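Priority: medium. Attachment 1 of 2:
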């Protein structure tokens, strides 16, 4: 065989190896897809519905607010032109671009990370739903994200208002941290058992 033929044969083997690694056996299972897409649809729908419902209902209330738990939890109407805690306020298109990039990353991780952990799939779906809910507001509500949950964590001290999408984003971070922590413990336990 000539060097050129050897190169072609080797390139074919590398190509087949890559394709076999990307075959359906490494992609998420049907159950993972069901959970992932269902959580995204339900989470995004819940976020957008809750924003619409609260913002339509509260103007009819005295003070445009409703106390759910006196001194702790109140529904209010607030709009945020920035990200968390008002960061990058007024940067509508920059924040929308970051949101779209984050969505692409989340989908890329879901499709190509090869993880089989259901908690990771759930966390990624919560991330996507939270990003989509707030991205919708940025694109279709003049760049203002509607927030309505007001928590008083200390007398006279309010946490910045947030919404269901923000809650899903925080839950996703917590779920990933816990998943990583328990996976790390599991590997350490197995390593000790092998010794």
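Attachment 2 of 2:
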């Amino acid at each position: 065989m000539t060097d050129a033929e050897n190169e072609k044969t080797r390139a074919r083997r590398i190509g087949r190896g890559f394709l076999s690694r990307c075959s359906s056996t490494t992609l998420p299972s049907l159950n993972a897809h069901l959970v992932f897409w269902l959580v995204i649809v339900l989470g995004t729908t819940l976020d957008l519905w809750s924003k619409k419902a609260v913002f339509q209902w509260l103007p009819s209330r005295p003070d445009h607010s409703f106390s759910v738990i006196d001194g702790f939890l109140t529904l209010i109407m607030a709009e945020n032109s920035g990200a968390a805690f008002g960061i990058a306020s007024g940067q509508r298109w920059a924040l929308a671009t970051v949101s779209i990039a984050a969505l692409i990353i989340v989908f890329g991780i879901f499709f190509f990370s090869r993880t089989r952990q259901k908690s990771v799939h759930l966390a990624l779906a919560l991330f996507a739903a939270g990003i989509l809910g707030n991205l919708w507001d940025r694109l279709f509500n003049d760049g203002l994200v509607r927030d309505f949950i007001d928590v008083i964590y200390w007398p006279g001290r309010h946490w910045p208002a947030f919404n269901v999408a923000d809650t899903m984003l925080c839950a996703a971070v917590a779920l990933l941290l816990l998943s990583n922590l328990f996976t790390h413990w599991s590997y350490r336990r197995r390593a000790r058992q092998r010794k």
